[in-house]
Amino acid sequence: MLRERGLRLTPQRQLILEAVHELGHSTPEQVHTYVRERVSGVNITTVYRTLELLEELGLVNHTHLSHGSPTYHAAGGHQHVHLVCRGCGQISEVAPSVMQPVTDRLMAEKGFRVDVGHVSLFGECADCKDQP
After folding, report:
1. Among 19, 8, 82, which residue's Cα sits nearest to residue 48?
2. Cα distance between residue 96 and residue 114, in whole Å
3. pLDDT for the residue numbered 54
4. How many CA atoms lie within 13 A of 76 on its CB side?
5. What's the maximum distance between 2 C-alpha atoms anywhere in the chain?
6. 72-76, 89-93, 101-105: which has the highest mean pLDDT?
7. Range of the domain at 100
8. CATH number of the domain that 124 lies in?
9. Cβ atoms of residues 90 and 52 within 8 Å
10. Do 21 and 70 fall into the same domain?
11. How do residues 42-66 score in pLDDT, each as one tens digit?
12. Which neighbouring-strand residues pair with 74?
């Protein structure tokens, strides 16, 4: 896909894409750590720029799972809604169908189409909600 757009598939780009696939949901900082464990000389700016490029190409997606950096995950898989535990930080996924009543209502009432892949719901996981 990069070559089709006249771009090179550099080792850094390949490694950053590999990191996103291996890590699942990861911030640019986590991707940077992964990459630096394998090769030196790749700075955080390169990671951010490459992630932006990969998202433009449709190879990765991002969402905001906290107040910090965006979280990236591989595109092309199934869309999902993120469930983020405020207690332990665990991230889990559910099918977008759980949002169907909300997305249908927003479309009917506001003509607004929800990008379910960017939806994050915050709360407490089963383990954390049972703790005193």
Report:
1. 19
2. 11
3. 92
4. 11
5. 57
6. 101-105
7. 81-129
8. 3.30.1490.190
9. no
10. yes
11. 999 999 999 999 999 888 888 877 7
12. 60
What is the rounded radius of gyration, in angstroms, for the C-alpha atoms of the chain? Answer: 17
Q: What is the mean pLDDT of the chain?
A: 88
Above 90 in pLDDT, residue 16?
yes
Q: What is the DSSP letter of 6?
A: T
Q: What angle do CA 18, 122, 47 make, to 5 degrees?
A: 25
Residues 6+ apart with CB under 8 A from 66: 84
> What is the predicted pLDDT for the residue at 119?
83
Q: Which residue has the tokens 């991707």?
A: 31
| Distance from C-alpha of 92 to C-alpha of 129, rounded to nearest angstrom | 15
Q: What does the alpha-carbon distance between residue 60 and residue 110 come to, in Å, rounded to a whole number?
A: 29
